[in-house]
Amino acid sequence: KLTSREFHPQDTIVDVDGVKIGGGEFVTMAGPCSIEGLDQIRECARIAKAGGAKILRGGAFKPRTSPYAFQGLEEEGLKYIRQAADELGMKVITEVMDEGHIDMVAEYSDILQIGARNMQNFKLLSAVGKTGKPIGLKRGISGTIDEWLNAAEYIAVQNNSNVIFIERGIRTYETATRNTFDLSAVPLMKKLSHFPIIVDPSHGVGIWDLVPPMARAGVASGADGMIVEIHPDPANAWSDGPQSLNEKTYMRMMQEVHIMEKAM
Ligand code: PEP
Ligand code: MN
């Protein structure tokens, strides 16, 4: 298989317009769960960059459990995140949920994020694969390692070797954390595949004060980077406030992550 380590023994480095994922440096993508407005995403970008993140995250199309919850600012949000990132020389990652929106999202974003709920949306995987853009492929909510690898294969078979795996926790019988953060997936995926893998401790645990220790553990696991949710005012975030870090906590976590990275 194209995704397998057997087929391609060397690590694949995904070049996101100059920012290399899988090249030895631990790359951080930080930003809010949802883009809420231009001022909010600019403030998030300022914080993200101050901590050392090179890539700005933020959702404009949100896969919400309830149809009554905020669904995202859509194209308006995409414009805001692109502007905020460009002002600070950052790259953008944002989710695409629908085949019909791929061209629009690709116009504004450097990485197309496939959300956990769409890991096995095979038509969407093929279609994003065809863009040739870097694809951040989240692990499905109940996705097995084999299913995740096969999802990447749908992208790779479209001649796209820019897959970035994102471990974001899986559903288990445990309910005390939002998901069960499966860090063993990092060394396992590295053994099975040549594509880089980053961790998402925010969705992995769902509780803000557990995020920094799991981010440090992510570095220790050998991950190529992380994606983490931050917000200037987590208590008033429009989505995922309970797992979002405020500026102070984020900055402290990033110091610790840099120390961990040097020790590796
Ligand atoms: C997100 O990144 O905000 C998100 C919706 O993540 P996931 O698809 O992992 O639930
Ligand atoms: Mn979120």
UniProtKB/TrEMBL annotation:
Keywords: Transferase. Residues 13-258 form the DAHP synthetase I/KDSA domain. One of its GO terms (biological process) is aromatic amino acid family biosynthetic process. The chain holds residues 70 to 333 of 339 of the full protein. It comes from the Bacteria. This is 3-deoxy-D-arabinoheptulosonate-7-phosphate synthase. It comes from Pilibacter termitis. One of its GO terms (molecular function) is aldehyde-lyase activity.
